[in-house]
Amino acid sequence: MPPTLSLPRAVVFDAYGTLFDVHAAVQQHAARLGPQAQAVSDLWRAKQLEYSWTRSLMGRYRDFWSLTQEALDHALARFGITDAALRDDLASAYHALSAFPEVPAMLAALRERGLRTAILSNGSPDMLAGAVTSAGLAALFDAVISVHPLGTFKPPRASYEPVGTALGVATGDVLFVSSNRWDIAGATAFGFASVWCNRASLPDEYDDLQPVAVLRDLATLPGLIG
Questions:
Q1: Contact at 8 Å (CB) between 140 and 108?
Q2: Which residue numbers are catalytic?
Q3: Same domain membership, residue 191 and residue 148
Q4: 114 and 162: one domain?
């Protein structure tokens, strides 16, 4: 059983893969993609992250929406898919990704306890606004923070600094939650207490940068705090 965590002042979430299902766009159009649908989705996500890391390292920033579309184009090309209408429908669907089913109640429970809630994401502001609005979650966040103004992506230390400014809280008062183990490592190195939402039951990594807890989904997060 996970330990009970000290009461933070704010709980901050990564967006993609943590609150929002990154495979929902492909799932909406799986019939049109056929048996390769999941492979297309997996490659799309992998390239989206790869492009964010490599461009950050090169100092050649492009916003996350541009990289998301470039990753989609690559994935479709790899599988020989040339349907322009399908490509546009997939891109549009990514702007309105579904939240995982436990997310609304989980956020409401945290806020009922007086905790501040926020998103810190690589997503560009318009992407995040679309996802939060389409999922009906706008009223459940004190702030939706994009790293876009920094001109780089997580996980460098500077990418976690906007949380304190936006929420007016100290680093030690933040619990950071992500489904991405590399993001947990970055947040832990910055000084946040972190919870890894390991939805895919992946093996652990970054053994020197451990989360304070590991969850299968976010349903039990409120009971873990306090």
A1: yes
A2: 14
A3: yes
A4: yes
DSSP string, 128-181: HHHHHHHTT-GGG-SEEEESGGGTS-SSSGGGGTHHHHHHT--GGGEEEEES-H
The domain containing residue 60 runs over which residues?
A: 24-94
| 128, 20 contact by CB (below 8 A) | no
pLDDT in tens, 124-137: 999 999 999 999 99
- Is residue 163 assigned to a domain? yes
Same domain as 210, residue 109: yes
Give residue-wise pLDDT tens across range 136-164.
999 999 999 999 999 999 999 999 999 99
Six-digit token pair at 5?
A: 């965590």
Of 45, 79, 94, which one is at a domain's C-terminal end? 94
Domain shared by 131 and 156, yes or no: yes
Question: SS3 breakdown of the chain: % helix, strand, coil, rounded to 5?
Answer: 50, 15, 35
Residues 215 and 178: their CA atoms lie apart, in Å, by 10
CB 70 within 8 A of CB 51: yes
CATH number for 193:
3.40.50.1000
Tens digit of each residue's pLDDT (9 = 90 or more) over 111-120: 999 999 999 9
